[in-house]
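Input:
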Amino acid sequence: MTSNPSEILRVEHLRKYYPVEKSFLEKMLARNRHFVKAVDDVSFDVRRGEIFTLAGESGCGKTTTGKLVLKLFPVTSGKIFFDGQDITGLKGEELRALRRKMQMIFQDPYASFNPRMRVGDAVGHSLEIHKLAKGEEKKQHVKDILERVGLVPAEKFVDLFPHQISGGQRQRAAMARSLILQPEFIVADEPVSMIDVSLRTAIIDLMLDLRRDFGLTYLFITHDLAIAKYISDRIAVMYLGKIVELGRKDAIFNSPVHPYTKALLAAIPVPNPERKRNPSELIGEVPSAIDIPSGCRFHTRCKYAKEGCSVKEPELVEVTPGHFAACGGFSKA
Amino acid sequence: MEEKNSIRKSMLARLAAVIPVVKSLTTRKGLAGKLVIIGAVLTVAIVVMTALSPWITPYDPNDVGAGDPLTAPNSQFPLGTDLLGRDLLSRVIAGGSVMLEVAIISVLFCAIIGIPLGLFSSHTGGVVDRFISLIMDSIYAFPGIILAIALTLVLGRGVINIALSIAVVYIPSYFRVIRSQVLSMKELPYVEAANSLGAKRRTILRRYILPNVLPSTIVVATVNFADAILTAAGLTFIGLGVNVSIPDWGRDLTYGRTLMLSGNWWVSTFPGIMIILLALGFTLMGEGLSELLNPRLEQGGAK
Amino acid sequence: MPEPLLNVKGLSVEYRTSRGTNHAVDNVSFTLDKAETLGIVGESGSGKSTLGLSLIGLIPFPGKIVDGTITLDGKDVLKLKKEELRKLRGTGICYVFQDPMTSLNPVKKIGDHFVEMIRAHQPKVTKKEALERARNLLKDVGIRTERVSDYPHQLSGGMRQRVMIALAIALNPSIIVADEPTTALDVIVQAKILDLLNSLRDTYGLALILITHDLSIVLERSDKLMVMYAGQVMECAPSHVLYSDPQHPYTRGLLKSIPNIELADQKLEAIAGSPPDLLGLPCGCRFWPRCKEAFERCTKEEPKLFRTAENHWVRCFLYDQEGETQ
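Output:
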């Protein structure tokens, strides 16, 4: 397998299907099992030092993809390569060692902390798990990292419980907890969507600073395209488990190709009272992930849909260099 | 071994941390706090009384003929005497020991078996979990007292045996409470977070799940205690109690039954009241604690 | 000048907790005219939801309205008796709750929700008539009428929210208060819901109060805006004025911290500090600990609302002229 040194993560044909629970009788008699196809043939790569965003609405599979990449649960099929190494089947001690290099920031800063563990203990626990430091040395590391994420004075925060600090502070603590292991790669799952608006910028700026200082790479997951525009280098737009468009930030925002991307961008609220808004061009609602439309899964809502769209599922095609879209209207570049 | 010590240490530390928390909460949370205090006072008073009984009983509780048989409460025998002329006050003061022993041993046994079993079963999942749950549910479905009777007949009398019989009846309660909590906690983000940090399963159980699950077991324990006392009384009532020579409320209650009809009400009544008070004490504590330890639904938040 | 539809003066709501008194809403005043959209913006602790709930008398215990008046169509809402207040809900003001997942009764069909609501206010209406109305309302909000016999769990989040809105307009209220109507929804559905609310306003002449933390939504869709912080109104102005001339440091900070996709190279600026602890508010201006432009007076005295233009009020000493205060 060729390993491109500038590539830190590569995902190939990733699939995650959840079987739909049926009664015992139906299981025996049914020919076809029904699946929730949360992630359905997703491939992309993330380059070292970049911020790669998975964007899309809820149910599109972006969070599941992020967790699959971190191997929080097993894939149904597909491969994951981290730093050139195939980690798809990794287990046990090897997996644990890998965890030091890949970390996650969760969406809900409150729920991601054990309510009975003090902040200092929670952050230091990372070191304990990997037997990296103990006692005084551990305490010093904890203090250092808390200061680095802006929780000063560190002595004060070490003894507080999660419910005693604000959402923004908790998210900083979450970053401290991950960073103390000195990872190379961080999956950030909607890190600011549950934080007050006035605190979001600070957290985003912190993430950017940390990238610079620690040489991090981010897989950023969000439904908020406005934030995606601010922070990303490259963006992949997902719909019902598939990537429908992928490209550099400017390409996506300035010249979107896929009708879904266009509709998504048109729907984003803009803080401008003068803005003239065209009514949304999308018809209907997102179909259920159990009953994915045939052919192009977006065709049921697409105003440009043609005959071929309900038959053949379009592949990701390079529209312009580095800019890919999966749309019947662009099958031949 | 080292892990066990650290478990003990962390549990002690947690207990130590809980006490001031509970103290501060009792002053705040009104009714719940008062319930806990009343219950605790009642229970502690009875326990202390029983512990000090060898020294504070006015007469030897077994002293047959200390007074005339079946004298009504008077100045010499404030609670009267029983059929054998024994001072009832002394018997009431000393009569709790068997019950308390039985209750304490059975609760400890329940906890030591039920909690780890619940943790193990729910965390392992799959067929193992199903199987163990099935067994637990079957035991749970049995009317407690009947099961206790059957076990006592098999195991024989004696404090330990009675305690064990009662314990078996209540293990499923702990098991269920722990199991349902662990099952719901397994999906919680902070458990997922611990997993993503690379923590081992055992570590997650010990440091993330167990501390959050223990408070509810305290509540189960107090209710269990109260129930154990009543079951022990019940067993004695039907004659499966302990050795005759130890003063016991349950037995006095039983033997005093027939005397009620002839108007000697005190022989049954006072031991009966004591049983009720002890069970009440624990129940109140349990009720109050369950309110207090289900925390953080503080009102007064504005949005 | 015609009387405004809704006139709130000096409203104050407190929560008395064992840890102290929480001034959730502190001396808030505003007016609302027919077919007008008012946006109330604030973060956690700003008091915006409490404000919304107080308009229909549904403040959760232990909150209490301790001061102020709410006048709807000339009637003093706070002085209404229980029965009259109940009638008001639904016909005068209707509240759309934040979370459509939990606001609908999972064991009742959609149609039954309407029947219950309509008949609670108009008992003479028969079940058949009520269901017919329900179907029309569902059509108005863009849901297929067969859905009237579905259960809530059979509908998606966006559809449930639309059902909530349909319920809200069922009795032709004059005002709809929507509390975070789109927070739980995706951006495309969100846009549709907001479009819907606007079209309803155009069709029925509804007045709309949008309560949200999302400044983008309200700037785009409201006629006028109220920015709240720690229970007080910090700034209040028509939307285009607030956008072109934000005066309060908090408003400015908010505008600079929200990403705007229409701007090319945006540099976002953070607002320092943390959201306020309502039980431990600082002396003086409640915002001063986070304010870049705070000076000595801010730490000692609480500023009043100063009028800087016809319809523009700011609670900040930077604008203290001898002008009017509220």
